[in-house]
Amino acid sequence: MLEMAGRVFAQHGFHDASMDEIAEAAGISKPMLYSYFGSKEGLYFAYVNQSYRELITGIDQAVAGAGPSPEAQLRAGTHAYYVYVGEHRHAFRVLFREMGDPGGELAPQRLRLARRVGASIEEIVRAAEARPWTPAHIAALAEAWLGAARSIADWWLDHPELSAEAVSDMLLDFGMAGIRGLCHPLPAQPA
Amino acid sequence: MLEMAGRVFAQHGFHDASMDEIAEAAGISKPMLYSYFGSKEGLYFAYVNQSYRELITGIDQAVAGAGPSPEAQLRAGTHAYYVYVGEHRHAFRVLFREMGDPGGELAPQRLRLARRVGASIEEIVRAAEARPWTPAHIAALAEAWLGAARSIADWWLDHPELSAEAVSDMLLDFGMAGIRGLCHPLPAQPA
Amino acid sequence: MLEMAGRVFAQHGFHDASMDEIAEAAGISKPMLYSYFGSKEGLYFAYVNQSYRELITGIDQAVAGAGPSPEAQLRAGTHAYYVYVGEHRHAFRVLFREMGDPGGELAPQRLRLARRVGASIEEIVRAAEARPWTPAHIAALAEAWLGAARSIADWWLDHPELSAEAVSDMLLDFGMAGIRGLCHPLPAQPA
Amino acid sequence: MLEMAGRVFAQHGFHDASMDEIAEAAGISKPMLYSYFGSKEGLYFAYVNQSYRELITGIDQAVAGAGPSPEAQLRAGTHAYYVYVGEHRHAFRVLFREMGDPGGELAPQRLRLARRVGASIEEIVRAAEARPWTPAHIAALAEAWLGAARSIADWWLDHPELSAEAVSDMLLDFGMAGIRGLCHPLPAQPA
DNA sequence: AATGAATGAGGTTTCATTCAT
DNA sequence: GATGAATGAAACCTCATTCAT
Q: What is the pLDDT of residues A162-187, one digit of tens each?
């Protein structure tokens, strides 16, 4: 039932999606929606929350099956992200295209995602035996990674001929090189 | 006068910003807003459009003064981006946090930004004498770059103690290394 | 419920009647009006349309019960017209005083009225074995008949002491004489 | 200058005609309109009043030049009415199609018209040496005459190929026969 | 004298939300 | 328990009307 809500939210955005349309699409009556979710925001939250959970679960499983190498874990997690996006276009639209600033109650979910990426980055850095980075630096890079991931996924929506693996690799090749380059900066940069 | 509109749009988002509030914040009456901009969408468009123009102008000037090296140009442009964001928080919020998919008439502006980044990347690759990339690959990386830039800027809003230069460098060091790494991939990658 | 709408429309005219007032007069809320009729124009149309239908139905029944003589039919129809006006002052005001040129969707109703009168006139002429009239002539006379009927009804509103039969006869005596006179013009007309 | 106001009023009706449009059509500024006419209603009144005056003046002159016969006078006045309508379509639309119930201040003008017709009818009846009619009867017939005239003029707008004389004669032949018939009713009417 | 610029007041319309059945 | 019917509140927008230049 959240399924249909997500579809409508993805299509029209939060504000232009009317409870009437959602109720009709879900095949139930409006008062039912209210009895289950309390309000429009409640419904939205329920949908976004569930989607986040699914996404994170998918990533968790992929990471868990990826062996001990932090780099392999980041690769697996990123790949899982794109697999999820590929299979849940609506959810991606609602989660990442709709609102830049997730309403207070959703912030934790987004934070978990960022922390996860940050943790991977940190371990990679440590494994590379480079000088350690500040937490802020790592957090910023994790955000950058997620932003790049989001944008490539966005771009993917208009280039559906590519596989999840292909787009995942685009991000990974770029991002991994970036991290490695930060670990061992080249001695001289010609301006 | 667009100034105040932007402030309100940034605070509440397009939908929850009421013309009443904008008019009051701007110190004029609602009919004036309509006489100048025709509609709420017209006002929004005017603000976003002007902001985009300022941002792009800033980037253009920085790039023009950066010498012939494509890498230096990308650095300069990226730096200008953060300078603009630092000085126009409201505009940044409205331009990049509000809507994932800019309404039809605004698409060209966003496209110009992406093309600009893509062009820089392409030249860097060519200068590195690496094997050329497909246009799709370049476009995707340009989007990734912008997405990372957006996210770091977003993160910056919550860490205002950093200078524009510092955050700019974070993106640049990471991104440049990524591009360079893609040009000359390391021979072996331990999985 | 259209009842009250008609009352308000009759009193203020279409433009100066506010949906607020109609809703209050009808004892329901504005959104109900919109849920039933879609828009102010929809409400207006519904009222006018229903009124036209009632009027025409009344005339039809009277004509059907009037025997085969075309003159008797015209008398009966005209009488029914005044009976309706007498019992539906508001409807008359809205139908015939408000707008000279009924909006596109209402034109057919008015046309039916005019055609009906024209048909009666034509048969009377034919029965009188006068030389036939052109369709344009008949159409113009039908309009004249309706215009005279409307004006007498209008005048009746300020002279409510008369019965429907009395005013009906005024029109009929005058109009019938006019038609008959046209059928058999007097040989000489002193200028 | 009233000329243009009339044009706009005729085209859009009183309510949908905006002062902006009238001012622009007249080539002056809105504050000028207000300085001359005080309000929208004032402007409307000025236009309608002037038009009525012109119409009545035209009728007066025609009647004055028509000789002593009351019937000839009615013919001349009616003809003048159609001449005026033919030459002032806009004025006709505003005077007779717009509002069934002329705002208080305009009632006298319309009344003068009705009285004039009523007086002619009365004299014709007297000249015919028929039994006199009640004032109410005469007033009603005068209204009927005007209503028929209005409707035929209305119909004329859609049949502009006819001359003013032709449509005028249609009304006169019918109406005169009606009056004469009322003076000397036929002895028997076959039902 | 003449106007561009400004506004107060009010209209239609839409929804998230809740009764009464 | 489930819903059709109902509504309060507010949004956008327009226009007759006036002020300050």
A: 999 999 999 999 999 999 888 876 55
Residue B173 in domain: yes
- Between CA A23 and C1' E16 the distance (Å) reads 13
In chain B, what are the helix, strand and coil shares in percent, each to the nearest 5? 80, 0, 20
In this predicted structure, what is the pLDDT of residue A104? 67
State, as a whole number of angstroms, the distance between the CA of C21 and the C1' of F15: 20
Give how many domains chain C has, as a whole number: 1
Residue at D32 is within a domain: yes
Q: Residue C80 belongs to what domain range?
A: 2-180
Q: Please tell me what DSSP assigns to residue C60.
A: H
Distance CA(C35)–CA(C28), nearest Å, equals 11
CA dist., res. B132 & res. B139, Å (int):
13
- Best of D174, D179, D189 to substitute, by most chain C Cβ atoms within 10 angstroms, is D174
In a domain, C186, yes or no: no
CATH (domain of C138): 1.10.357.10
Q: Which two tokens stand for residue A169?
A: 């690799």
Assign D188 a pLDDT band (cuts: 50, 70, 90): very low
Over residues C12-41, the pLDDT tens digits come to: 989 999 999 999 999 999 999 999 999 999
Residue C156 belongs to some domain of the structure: yes
CA A113 to chain centre: 7
All partners of chain D with 3 or more CB pairs under 8 angstroms = C
A167 chain-B contacts, CB cut-off 8 A? 140
CA atoms within 13 Å, Cβ hemisphere of C62: 21
Q: How far is CA B20 from the centre of its chain?
A: 29
Residue count (chain D): 191
Which residues in chain D are contacts of C146 at CB distance < 8 A? 151
Instruction: Note if the pTM is more than 0.90.
Output: no
